UniProtKB/TrEMBL annotation:
Transmembrane is among the record's keywords: no
Protein name as catalogued: 60S ribosomal protein L8
SUPFAM superfamilies noted in UniProt: L30e-like
Entry-linked PANTHER family: RIBOSOMAL PROTEIN L7AE FAMILY MEMBER
Naturally occurring in which organism (per UniProt): Aureobasidium melanogenum (Aureobasidium pullulans var. melanogenum)
Amino acid sequence: MKAPKSGKKVAAAPFPQGKAGVSKKNAKNPLIERRPRNFGIGQDIQPRRNLSRMVRWPEYVRLQRQRKILNMRLKVPPAIAQFSQVLDRNTAAQAFKLLNKYRPETKAEKKERLTKEATAVSEGKKKEDVSKKPYTVKYGLNHVVGLIENKKASLVLIPNDVDPIELVVFL
């Protein structure tokens, strides 16, 4: 229960029946002395502590923590700093949906397309009329660089976790 908000104090609860005002004191044995605990080497055992900070972490965890701290301390040039941001979730989902639409054809699909072309050519038609080569996503660093230099690339997606960052800085 909370006390009323006015300036008056609430009366203390009365003593229980039979113990009116008498406080019981433990009788101490005079032969037993209380001595302070000594936590020195080979002495008393120390109280339990939370040792979760003292864990021997796996090497990959230590490395990624050190890398994060080093990246925070470094002054990163703008050409490299742009790779620290990634697409937000919705835009990334749209990008992957687009890439999925233009994914390269499988071996079975290619074989089927080529057999259709071959039968069409044997019947005397032009192979371009039967099935055109599908538009696909181009990948691979050297291939993409060539497409950019020839001004053929309309959209270039660059991953943010390329390990030797120099590979994509010149893009």
